[in-house]
Amino acid sequence: MSNPYLLLTPGPLSTTSSVKEAMLKDWCTWDDDYKQIVQSIRSKLLQVGQVSEAHYTTVFMQGSGTFGVEAAIGTAVPADGKLLILVNGAYGTRMQDIAKVLGIRSETLVFAFNQKLDVEQVNEALERDDEITHVAFVHCETSTGILNPIDKLMKVIKRHRKIAIVDAMSSFGGIPIAVEDLGIDYVISSANKCIQGVPGFSFILCRISELAKCEGRARSLSLDVYDQWRVMDSEPGKWRFTSPTHVVRAFHQALIELEQEGGVEKRHERYVLHQLALVSLMEKAGFATLLPKSLQSPIITTFKYPLHSEFTFESFYRFLKEKGFVIYPGKLSEEHVFRIGTIGDISMEKMIELGKAVSAYVTDIMGGQ
């Protein structure tokens, strides 16, 4: 059965038929065949992150991407540690909320939603407070689509010898990240993002030498990255608690398809082309982007509401859904915006169809611009 609409969202996203078909078979969590799939995924993810098995390991965590972020922060930062959180959007703010709930000492540097994280201000904060032990930030801030300067940020963080926790939820697998060369200690993403699987678990690439220090640190029983790692390594392929077997199998198929496409570099090229096409089509229809091109990622693009009395997001959403496209509402309180994703199993032909649908809305509902 074909999908009733195409998901133009940052995850969940539209997946291939073969990824969906991978979920049609039931799997036992204790079965050797299934555990071998788990181990294969762990290894493949290290390759995607450009790290060596001697220095890094992959740990899975049941749940959404936020489960993985909370698990990493709650496990990595010791009781006497202090976390510097860099915020320029909703998902950086979520890290701040996590630290507060877990009782982790923290300091936050807040930047405007349309400003990339400022490396000099980060450097000043680290020079000012030598109690800071860990730094956490979002690579691609999905609330706007802004892409933060991960290379420059990591140079500063490592110059100060701090532990880096990077939320690469919407970039890992879609934008090349040389995790080991950059010196990232923990990088977190999710099954339903740029690898193009379905929702159900997150994963964390961890520097082994740092993770080995984390025994007993976790503020949660189930969100303990250290204990999950010990079980996965001592009983290869086993999760501590029930794993999402169908999702894991679909993710394995998605990783195979990433390789068949030509790896992260080729997928990144496709995402870039789709995002550029999207902006061109939307601008022709009279819509303006929130961010300048210099700050924009190829993952998701935020557009401003047009200044037209007949436009409402609700009517726009319904119109596009009837045409076969689902988009995302905005996630900013300061601006009236909506978002359109360009990741997933999307073709250029579909982007062109979307442009026609948007133009039809402008003509039929808004009476032209």
UniProtKB/TrEMBL annotation:
EC number annotated for this UniProt entry: 2.6.1.37
Transmembrane segments: none
Gene3D superfamilies xrefs: Aspartate Aminotransferase, domain 1, Type I PLP-dependent aspartate aminotransferase-like (Major domain)
Modified-residue entries (N6-(pyridoxal phosphate)lysine), positions: 193
Cofactor: pyridoxal 5'-phosphate
GO MF annotation, one: 2-aminoethylphosphonate-pyruvate transaminase activity
Catalytic reactions of this protein: (2-aminoethyl)phosphonate + pyruvate = phosphonoacetaldehyde + L-alanine
GO biological process: organic phosphonate catabolic process
Keywords, sorted A to Z: Aminotransferase, Pyridoxal phosphate, Pyruvate, Transferase
Keyword Zinc annotated: no
Annotated positions binding substrate: 339
Function: Involved in phosphonate degradation.
Family matches, as HAMAP family: PhnW_aminotrans_5 (MF_01376)
UniProt subunit comment: Homodimer.
Protein name stated in the entry: 2-aminoethylphosphonate--pyruvate transaminase
UniProt lineage: Bacteria, Bacillati, Bacillota, Bacilli, Bacillales
